From TrEMBL:
Keywords: 2Fe-2S, Iron, Iron-sulfur, Metal-binding, Oxidoreductase. It comes from the Bacteria. This is Xanthine dehydrogenase YagT iron-sulfur-binding subunit. GO terms for molecular function: 2 iron, 2 sulfur cluster binding; metal ion binding; oxidoreductase activity, acting on the aldehyde or oxo group of donors. Residues 1-75 form the 2Fe-2S ferredoxin-type domain.
């Protein structure tokens, strides 16, 4: 059994009880994905599986045989940081940085969900073809990722700059 992690094929351990989080951190030496609560409540362990965000502490590695996983280590390229990583730096979207990997991956997954038209609890028109990423939408969609330091304003600004700048500017003008 293999999983593709950040573009590389990796063997899944024989023990079916190994979580995806523990596979990443303990077996593959990818410490960017953080173990926060280990109960699926904080979002520190968020990764992308085939482009969709999941909390890896609640996922068994064997469930993801043949799938593609992206961790924070897989965001940057030879050309430099991912645009969202740069925006986090520019907008002080982190303080201690512990939640940052999960925040980054959750935001990327969230942007994909919005682009596909998946509504949130605050989406005004659930029948619309797409979702406008307002500050309210971003805050609601990112609410599963906790930040102990309270860097939420910087996080929302970084996400808005990367994925929703036109919508946010229209919201300010209104």
């Amino acid at each position: 059994m293999t999983i593709t992690i950040n573009g590389r094929s990796c063997e899944v351990p024989g023990d079916p009880r190994v979580s995806l989080l523990d596979l990443l951190r303990d077996h593959l030496g990818l410490p960017g994905t953080k173990k926060g609560c280990n109960q699926g409540a904080c979002g520190a362990c968020t990764v992308l599986v085939d482009g969709e965000r999941i909390v890896s502490c609640l996922a068994l590695a064997v469930q993801y045989d043949g799938r593609s996983v992206t961790t924070v280590e897989g965001l940057a390229s030879e050309a430099g940081l991912h645009p969202l990583q740069r925006a986090f730096v520019e907008h002080d979207g982190f303080q201690c940085g512990y939640c940052t990997p999960g925040q980054l991956l959750s935001a990327i997954g969230m942007a994909g969900e919005a682009a596909r038209g998946l509504p949130s609890a605050v989406t005004a028109d659930v029948a619309a073809d797409g979702v406008t990423l307002t500050r309210e939408e971003i805050a609601e969609r990112m609410s599963g990722n906790l930040c102990r330091c309270g860097a939420y304003n910087g996080i929302v600004e970084a996400v808005a700059e990367t994925f929703a700048r036109n919508e946010i500017e229209a919201e300010k003008a209104a």
